[in-house]
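Chapter review: from sequence to fold.
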Amino acid sequence: MGLVSRLFQGNTRLEACLVDNAAHVTLGAQGEHVAKIQFALFSLDNLDIDRTELVTQSYGPSTAAAVLSYKTKRQIINRSYQTTPDSIVGKMTIASLDAEMRKRQLSFPGVGDCALTPPSVPQPFVLSPLNGRQRPVAAFTEQVGDRNSKQSAAGKPKQLNKALRIFLSITKRASIEDGFPALSADLERAKDSLFEHGLTLSVEFRNGFADTIDFAGTAGRIILEDDIVGLRKASEDLRPGLANILRVIVCPMNDFVFGETFRNRRIGNLFFPPFVLINSRQTDRSHATLLHEMIHAAFVEKNGNKLRHDSLPNSIFFENGTTQLGAVERTFLNPDHAVILANGYFAV
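The token string follows.
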């Protein structure tokens, strides 16, 4: 039987390590299999590995020290010829890492805010003074306390006077496949919708993708929990910090998903603020995905209270995007959602 954890399963170098002494992973090794080992060591024991070794996927001195620490804690020793642990990943070590990562994998849901949001329910509608569009009455009373977000007597939304800071990156796989040609349109949609509420969008470091992440995980088709956390950590390793900037990462995802926001993710002692993944393989015709996920990321959950999607098909925060011609496009930014954005951790 081969490796069973989603992190290790199918990696030829690690599958060989499980059955062949000649395939042990040792000091000087480099590649995706090393990155997977490093991720497991940090996930399970919060072991410190040099950032250069993480970025280059190299089995250097700090990785070897982390392996030795892991094996010492569990007394992984081949008693046929050893009396103390070593810093090599062999059959026993990869089997132990695999079993622990499998157990960890089963304890995580692997879904984001959009998947967890309760379904929309029809609500009474009134005509809004904003362009005569309809919107629900008090749809967000329970989630939003600041009622001065409503339109002024002049019929214009309250001007919130905040800048929203985001940071854009893309995985190497997404970049090689097709990139994300819809990025500029998503940015323009966000800027246009925010402007009406006195909000501006600040794309930090570069007006486009500042980083390309050479991520060792799959990040494809089906999003797995280890991929989600691993990709976020890979972004952190490449550009650490940025506590008050929303990270948006474009990567291949499940074909039926436009984007997802993930919160309450941690690895070791690192706790990540909400972050966004956008699907490089799926483009919403209304280009509302970026702003939609920004609203999710800005919302602060209280007592498990989650932000309900809007029931209006033309709302930015309607739950479903579309790829179909002639469908209703998501273009309207509800003033309550603008307030959520203005109060988000990435607003200044």
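Two observations follow directly from the output. The two ends are 53 Å apart (CA to CA). The chain has two domains: 12-105, 113-342.
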